[in-house]
């Protein structure tokens, strides 16, 4: 009979290797005795083997991106001890360490646990760190207390400890309102609260979206339920996760995620599947859930858009923003922020999807003093959601998957544009995100300009470069950015400059955003226009190859 | 203060001196978190020296910076930091660091790189001084001189710095001349011949992968039709083909298992379909030309069928009472039931081919008459002149040629056989003689052959069946005489042999071992020692033109002869070969006849390229073992009971899913590929997708091989190596940018006018 595909190796690993790895035992084992399969399963504890053999990345689980000063100080202390004094903010609002040796993994985990932070499910085929909007708990537009809802989901026993063998990763977002700040449409489950008046009484319920996801096959979430009563949110989140567990394709990882399940079933049938599971579980009140019945998502524009600080719903208090260069915080800087949070705010630090941070609950009178201090310490305190506020993944520096050095390109962009305030002010809202590989840690699909790493074939070898995408957004029904040109890494800055100058010259009035401009003229048209103006320079790969013989000689001579 | 890691440092330094960079990294990483300045400096050096993967430059730079930050800044750390900055195109940092330790008495390479850093940092004026000194110190270094020249030009005129200019990459290196449709360039035929080895090995160029897939899909009619079109006798060949395709099948290559049972599968395609005859469409309207074909064996019938398809009026002259030639006369019924032969010959008749039996050319009708009444004549009279070994005692009774023996049994119901039968030979005839003799009741049957089994020209499985039927095989013996009494043979004298150098056929020649003679008792000796064409029937007037002194055709294996309108097909031209060889030769002959009659080539081969979305193959299919042909029990075996019973539907699926479907071409569009390596990570076989520095091409521009790339920067292409590709789609599934195309590429034979019309349309 025709052969059926075997389970993929990782599916076999998930069935045969306990995801609760004993890292004390791992610390004792020679590296070569750790199997590739075990290394894969480390992820379920938030541990990745990095590009440099024998060194690891550890990602923390930080629901909603909120940390206390005490926790950040501990993280800094550990990075001094074990991680080359570095910390990195991720696009899912958490922190990660690099350069951890296998001998030190458990030390970091144990010490973080002491301050209430675990790494469980920070990676792997599980429900990942649940994200929120960066103003959760303080935003003037927040409909209700969404932080408690987020924690209810994030800390749920079933989602955190029982559902640990999903077909693929599973991501949840809990936003404070129907605006795009909470990235509702790019998550497997996207939640936001809504208010409606029934019989003269205000009721709070939730809109449930599912099937968003980036990676190599980006999809925008679909509206599944137009109304979920507040008390059923967790049950729906659980049932949706269970539906994914049952329906995800375990034979092909590329097509395993929930977004593909929903592609296949459609939003309506997926909603039915979720309701069916709830019915089987004997959940009461299902009839109060209102199916979307063909309604499309309608996410509002970002509230957080360029403000250096934002007045909180708690009157007289502000959330003050600091831009973190390339998401990298040194241990000293981390300690500094922890101290500032304690001195100026309430000791809370919020990490953002654009890899920056907020110090919250700063009384109005102290806002400027804090900003001055931050500026003095070398942090940018303006330019948010503008060109200087670029986002990049770790690229070829430490990632196994990357083909392009995104941090380098990030620095090139910042170096060349950040000081030209007049230029980026003129442009207005413009988010640039970079990704070193076809995955989407750097979220290049959902922003105005997204760079995705690639190599470009030369007559001799190939050279590092990017495919430049434009026109992504998480508003309305969502829009996935489209590729418009390929460019060598060395040419990214002049190419972007040319494109932005074209935009400034052609935009309607001074109010048309880059996003609107791109969608008005169309991707193909833009592509045509850009082909003529994108510059080119010398292939660096060839030059470096030619000089290779000299390099070692110089070190020897030294 | 003495460094607490002194021991590790010493060991690491030694390892670095020996360029054992990985070991050094391992050592430096293992003992303590590398937060020590010296450890960091050594890690920087290790990564710098390794330098062969992405991330190494970053790591070297990172740890060099850490070393400096932690207070260790010697010139070696500085040099690493400066060079990695340069590589990262952070020229200002490179200049800053070089300036900390480079001076006018530094060695040439160091001064050169300082100069280069200044040059790329747009400080050409200062660069010139350093580069000048480097040139002075090493006057023969062309690289230094080139850099100096660029710096001087830059200083004078400004402009772009181009140290190593290379032309832009050329067009995407396609495997075929066209993206889709019909293609007929040498590149396309080369691809077909190189990548579909079974089809290339089949003399009739049967589209094997396509019909195997049809069988897998349960579309037996399609499978039969493909075979019928290409090799004329699918059900017959499915039983008795010599299977040259199977020895070339990729599944049988070293390390890949066993060849697909193509022949048995072909038979399943015929057995499992309906019994209705299939009449092919005539390609051209009636031409009004008349062709006579001499001999109704496979070659004659193939030529006749092809010529009928081309619109000609064909008559076949056969001296026996029924058509089929060796199919009837030579192959036993237990291997090939006669109704199968009749059915497939009938399909040829239904195309309008007239077969005149009991009509021997040269006796009942002369060749001259045929020539005078036909527009062309095809001689396909087979090989019926036996090769009788000229040994002492050859005239004793009981010694006969195997072909004659088989003819008598198969055609004339002869049933006599001796007690002790010795069959001499190691080919198809020998096997058939032995198994027939056994069925006739001989007490002892033995096959004696002068070489080893490796050199035997038999169908796979035949030796096993011989053993199964308890017929011994004596190898490495050759007859050197016969002994007898009362005019009857009683013994064959054999001499033992050993294998010597290969002969003209490529097989190793048997060399007799003196003194090793022995007598083998025998009352019947069947000689399966080959046969030659009989040209005696060709009349004298034409014989002078056509036939050589040795009675072979003067035209050799060619399909044409010295006489314009006379052609030759099959064994009659080539000597005794397999059925499929005869079919291939006869097809070629028919095309030559058509071109002669119509004064132009009306039939063309083309590559047909069609887009596909997948093959349905998965890696797991590679691990399915080959399927055994079911056979009847020994006690049921007789002269007429077919031994092999054929695959049922389940076995047919099990077997055909093994085919690699080599006619599917997986190709990466290198203009879209982003070199993310995801396909390489997903690949099931070591060499199915490779990182290529350069493709090797022959003088016609055809891709004949590749040079592997060692690192990222010299990787020009990620390339699918068709030879190792198993068409499992894993790469397509993994590719995030959809740059892998799948196409079905088939060798097709079409009307030239249709091909030209489509090619001109393009």
UniProtKB/TrEMBL annotation, chain A:
In this chain the Nitrite/Sulfite reductase ferredoxin-like domain maps to 50-115, 310-376
The record ties this protein, via SUPFAM superfamilies, to: Nitrite and sulphite reductase 4Fe-4S domain-like, Nitrite/Sulfite reductase N-terminal domain-like
Q: Which UniProt keywords apply?
A: 4Fe-4S, Heme, Iron, Iron-sulfur, Metal-binding, Oxidoreductase
- The residues covered by the Nitrite/sulphite reductase 4Fe-4S domain are 124-274, 390-530
Superkingdom of the source species: Bacteria
Quote the InterPro entries the UniProt record gives: NIR_SIR_4Fe-4S (IPR051329), NiRdtase/SiRdtase_haem-b_fer (IPR005117), Nit/Sulf_reduc_fer-like_dom_sf (IPR036136), NO2/SO3_Rdtase_4Fe4S_dom (IPR006067), NO2/SO3_Rdtase_4Fe4S_sf (IPR045854), NO2/SO3_Rdtase_FeS/sirohaem_BS (IPR006066)
A GO term, aspect molecular function: oxidoreductase activity
What is the name of this protein? Nitrite/sulfite reductase
The protein's organism comes out as Candidatus Auribacter fodinae
């Amino acid at each position: 009979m025709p052969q059926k595909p075997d389970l993929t190796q990782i599916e076999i690993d998930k069935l045969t290797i306990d995801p609760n790895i004993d890292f004390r035992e791992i610390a004792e084992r020679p590296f070569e005795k750790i199997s590739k399969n075990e290394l894969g399963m480390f992820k379920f504890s938030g541990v990745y083997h990095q590009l440099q053999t024998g060194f690891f990345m550890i990602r923390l689980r930080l629901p909603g991106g909120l940390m206390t000063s005490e926790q950040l100080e501990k993280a800094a202390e550990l990075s001094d001890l074990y991680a080359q004094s570095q910390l990195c903010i991720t696009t899912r609002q958490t922190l990660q360490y690099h350069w951890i040796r296998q001998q030190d993994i458990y030390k970091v985990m144990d010490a973080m646990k002491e301050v209430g932070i675990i790494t469980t499910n920070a990676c792997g085929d599980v429900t990942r760190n649940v994200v929120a909007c960066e103003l959760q708990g303080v935003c003037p537009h927040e409909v209700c207390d969404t932080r408690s809802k987020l924690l209810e989901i994030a800390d749920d026993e079933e989602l955190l400890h029982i559902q640990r063998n999903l077909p693929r990763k599973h991501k949840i977002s809990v936003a404070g309102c129907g605006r795009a700040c909470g990235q509702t449409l790019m998550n497997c489950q996207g939640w936001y609260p809504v208010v409606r008046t029934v019989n003269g009484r205000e009721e709070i319920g939730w809109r449930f979206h599912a099937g968003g996801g980036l990676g190599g096959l980006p999809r925008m979430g679909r509206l599944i339920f137009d109304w979920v009563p507040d008390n059923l949110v967790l049950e729906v989140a659980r049932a949706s996760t269970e539906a994914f567990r049952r329906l995800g394709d375990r034979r092909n990882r590329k097509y395993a995620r929930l977004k593909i399940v929903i592609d296949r079933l459609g939003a309506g049938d997926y909603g039915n599947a979720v309701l069916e599971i709830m019915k089987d579980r004997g959940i009461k009140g299902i009839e109060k859930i209102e199916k979307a019945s063909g309604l499309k998502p309608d996410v509002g524009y970002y509230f957080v858009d360029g403000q250096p600080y934002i007045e909180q719903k708690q009157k007289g208090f502000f959330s003050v923003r600091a831009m973190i260069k390339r998401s990298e915080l040194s241990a000293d800087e981390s300690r500094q922020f922890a101290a500032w949070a304690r001195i100026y705010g309430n000791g809370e630090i919020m990490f953002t999807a654009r890899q920056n941070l907020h110090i919250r609950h700063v009384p109005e009178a102290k806002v400027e003093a804090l900003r001055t201090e931050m500026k003095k310490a070398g942090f940018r305190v303006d330019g948010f959601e503008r060109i200087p506020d670029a986002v990049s993944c770790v690229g070829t520096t430490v990632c196994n998957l990357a083909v392009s050095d995104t941090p380098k390109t990030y620095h090139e962009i910042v170096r060349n544009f950040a000081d030209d305030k007049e230029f980026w002010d003129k442009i207005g809202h413009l988010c640039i995100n970079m990704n070193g590989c076809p995955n989407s840690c750097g979220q290049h699909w959902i922003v105005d300009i997204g760079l995705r790493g690639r190599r470009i074939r030369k007559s001799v070898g190939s050279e590092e470069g990017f495919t430049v995408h434009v026109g992504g957004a998480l508003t309305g029904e969502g829009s996935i950015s489209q590729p418009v040109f390929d460019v060598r890494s060395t040419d990214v800055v002049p190419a972007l400059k040319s494109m932005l100058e074209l935009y400034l010259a052609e935009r309607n009035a001074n109010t048309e955003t880059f996003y609107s401009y791109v969608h008005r003229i169309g991707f193909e048209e833009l592509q045509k226009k850009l082909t003529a103006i994108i510059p080119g320079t010398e292939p660096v790969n060839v030059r470096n190859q030619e000089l290779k013989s000299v390099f070692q000689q110089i070190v020897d001579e030294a | 203060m003495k460094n607490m890691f002194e021991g590790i440092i010493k060991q690491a330094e030694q390892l670095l001196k020996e360029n054992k960079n990985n070991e050094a990294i391992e050592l430096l990483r293992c003992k303590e978190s590398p937060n020590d300045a010296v450890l960091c400096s050594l890690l920087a050096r290790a990564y710098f020296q390794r330098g062969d993967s992405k991330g190494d430059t970053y790591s070297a730079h990172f740890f060099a910076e850490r070393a400096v930050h932690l207070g260790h800044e010697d010139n070696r750390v500085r040099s690493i930091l400066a060079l990695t900055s340069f590589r990262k195109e952070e020229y200002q940092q490179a200049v800053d660091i070089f300036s900390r330790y480079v001076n006018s008495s530094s060695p040439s390479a160091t001064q050169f790189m300082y100069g280069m850093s200044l040059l790329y940092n747009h400080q050409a004026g200062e660069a010139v001084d350093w580069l000048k000194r480097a040139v002075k110190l090493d006057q023969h270094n062309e690289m230094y001189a080139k850099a100096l020249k660029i710096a001087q030009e830059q200083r004078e005129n400004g402009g772009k710095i181009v140290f190593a200019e290379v032309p832009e990459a050329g067009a995407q290196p396609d495997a075929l001349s066209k993206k889709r449709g019909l293609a007929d360039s040498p590149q396309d035929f080369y691809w077909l011949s190189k990548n579909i080895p079974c089809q290339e090995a089949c003399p009739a160029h049967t589209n094997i992968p396509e019909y195997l897939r049809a069988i897998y899909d349960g579309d037996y009619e399609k499978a039969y039709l493909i075979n019928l079109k290409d090799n004329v006798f699918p059900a017959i060949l499915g039983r008795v083909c010599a299977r040259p395709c199977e020895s070339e099948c990729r599944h049988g290559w070293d390390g890949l298992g066993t060849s697909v049972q193509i022949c048995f599968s072909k038979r399943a395609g015929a057995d499992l379909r309906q019994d209705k005859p299939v009449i092919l469409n005539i390609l051209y309207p009636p031409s009004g030309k008349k062709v006579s074909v001499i001999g109704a064996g496979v070659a004659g019938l193939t030529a006749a069928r092809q010529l009928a398809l081309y619109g000609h009026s064909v008559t076949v002259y056969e001296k026996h009472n029924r058509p089929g030639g060796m199919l009837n006369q030579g192959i036993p019924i237990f291997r090939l039931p006669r109704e199968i032969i009749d059915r497939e010959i009938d399909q040829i008749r239904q195309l309008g081919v007239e077969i005149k039996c009991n009509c021997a050319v040269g006796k009942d009708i002369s060749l001259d008459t045929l020539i005078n009444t036909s527009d062309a004549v095809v001689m396909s009279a087979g090989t019926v002149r036996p090769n009788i070994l000229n040994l002492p005692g050859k005239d004793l009774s009981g010694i006969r040629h195997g072909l004659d023996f088989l003819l008598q049994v198969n055609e004339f119901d002869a049933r006599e056989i001796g007690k002790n039968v010795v069959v001499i030979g190691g080919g198809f005839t020998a096997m058939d003689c032995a198994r027939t003799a056994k069925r006739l009741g001989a007490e002892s049957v033995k096959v004696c052959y002068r070489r080893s089994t490796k050199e035997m020209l038999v169908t796979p499985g035949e030796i096993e069946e011989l053993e199964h039927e308890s017929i011994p095989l004596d190898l490495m013996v050759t007859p050197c005489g016969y002994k007898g009494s009362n005019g009857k043979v009683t013994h064959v004298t054999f001499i033992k042999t050993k294998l010597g150098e290969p002969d003209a056929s490529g097989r190793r020649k048997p060399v007799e071992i003196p003194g090793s003679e022995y007598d083998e008792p025998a009352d019947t000796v069947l000689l399966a020692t080959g046969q030659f064409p009989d040209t005696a029937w060709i009349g004298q007037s034409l014989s002078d033109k056509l036939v050589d002194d040795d009675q072979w055709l003067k035209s050799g294996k060619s399909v044409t002869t010295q006489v314009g309108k006379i052609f030759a097909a099959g064994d009659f031209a080539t000597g005794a070969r397999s059925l499929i060889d005869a079919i291939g030769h006869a097809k070629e002959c028919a095309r030559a006849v058509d071109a002669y009659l119509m004064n132009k080539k009306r039939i063309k081969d083309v590559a047909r390229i069609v887009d596909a979305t997948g093959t349905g193959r998965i890696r797991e299919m590679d691990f399915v073992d080959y399927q055994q042909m079911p056979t009847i029990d020994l006690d049921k075996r007789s002269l007429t009971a077919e031994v092999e019973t054929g695959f049922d539907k389940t076995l047919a699926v099990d077997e055909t899913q093994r085919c690699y479907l080599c006619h599917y071409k997986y190709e990466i569009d290198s203009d879209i590929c982003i070199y993310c390596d995801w396909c390489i990570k997903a690949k099931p076989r070591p060499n199915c997708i490779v990182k290529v520095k350069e493709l090797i091409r022959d003088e016609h521009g055809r891709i004949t091989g590749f040079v592997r790339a060692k690192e990222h920067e010299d990787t020009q292409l990620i390339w699918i190596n068709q030879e190792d590709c198993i068409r499992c789609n894993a790469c397509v599934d993994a590719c995030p940018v959809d740059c892998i195309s799948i196409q079905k590429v088939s060798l097709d034979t079409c009307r030239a006018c249709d091909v030209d019309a489509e090619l001109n349309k393009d």
